[in-house]
Amino acid sequence: MNFSPQIVAELLPALLRGTVVTLYATAAGMAVALVVGLLIAIARRGSNPVAVLIIDSFVTVVRSTPLLIQLYLLFYVLPLYGPSFSPLFTGILGLGLHYSSYISEVFRAGIDAVPRGQWEACIALQFSRVKTWTRIVLPQAFRIVLPQIGNYLISMYKHASLLATITVVELLGAALNFAGETFRYFEAFTLVGIIYFVIGFAFSRLVRYLEQRTTYGRA
Amino acid sequence: MDHQSTSASQAPLAAEFVNVSKSFGAFTIIDDLNLQIRPSERVSLIGPSGSGKTTILRLLMTLERPNEGEIKVFGDVLSAGGEGAAKARPDREFRAIRGKIGMVFQQFNLFPHMTALENVMEAPVQVLGTQRQEARDLAECLLKRVGLAEKGASYPSQLSGGQQQRVAIARALAMKPQIMLFDEITSALDPEVIGEVLEVVHNLAHETKMAMLVVTHEMGFARDIADRVIFMERGKIVEDASPGEIFNSPRNDRTKAFLNAIKR
Q1: Fewest C-beta atoms under 10 Å: which of A132, B5, B62, B248?
Q2: Which CATH number fits the domain A24-169, given the four candidates 3.30.1490.270, 1.10.3720.10, 1.10.3810.10, 1.20.120.640?
Q3: Which site among B60, B111, B178 would you substitute to test the A interface, given the most A Cβ atoms closer than 10 Å to its Cβ?
Q4: Model confidence over B130-144: pLDDT tens digits?
Q5: ipTM
């Protein structure tokens, strides 16, 4: 079988639409992961033992099971007992919750890395708790964790291909559909691999750039 | 108002420790301490490490809570240990009392993600609700006062230790405290920049009416800045007298021994 430019021309529009869905799912999933991960990290520092137990259980369960199973549960099982969402929304939720359990640990480490003197300076300057977090601790913690968040972003971008299994027509899904109809697996998956690589490579370069400029006043 | 103590009929004390004890685990760091600081008074705290000097400042700044006793600021109870700890006051009221106190730290604790100017502006803007332009004017004025008018745009990482500490002093001044706590502010500095920081504090002592509590190992500074010097050991005040008395004719043998050991 030869690589056919004509097939590529037919395939490309569908793959680009899929690429947009993949990037959208990654961005939205990361937004969910960042918000939930941060809330988990902050709540875990709290003194409410029930909340801490529930959160720890959630994190343990999520980390100990495959993302694919979690997506199946959200997509096929949850609607039997609870709300039913669109495939894409379910996928974003699954990606976001899954990664929130990892990102919460990143945030925890980042928050712990902010020196105790920063908290004490906030007390001495009469900051409220909210201002202490939003103005002083989190901006410093974010800079500390940025490279690790970037790595999880790359990982999530690749993991988003699993959404194809819950009928989301993202990049891989688009290729699967095309190949299923035309049997041109060679072109479809070669092209998908190239697209994944180009974007993934760009992401990893961005992360490396961010790693290099995490010191203050030298950027 | 029960916290208007009877002695408040005259000018209230700036700060008062009443039978305060503080321990960390089995180790008693402050032992049944009584201490009174009058408004505008400058007090140096000296003594060997672990004697509890810094803990006095940390208790006043509420970075630590007493196990026993009561700490008052201008007549109002700031914090209390034992049974008194139960009567927690509303947050806003508490912060109004604590707001009379400012602190400069050994390790500066500047905010590394902000410029020197932003460091000084931050608390007035975020805590007091001062307009940005007004806060900027104030910050520029304060930086000038500590000799750093040119360094407003620099980040802490771009400043020397002495410069960082002077920014930290300006930052604490921006909240207009009535009691300023200096916690070994030169201990983390290279010898050649200690002088510039001490000079700033000396000028403050001349130009303001703040009460000052100074914990230091610089004996010359402790003597020159203070109206009153307190020598501490093992969580207790051993001697409390004028700088002249403490440094020229200490009464207590342990004070003598400490000062002799330092001279060597």
Answers
A1: B248
A2: 1.10.3720.10
A3: B111
A4: 999 999 999 999 999
A5: 0.91
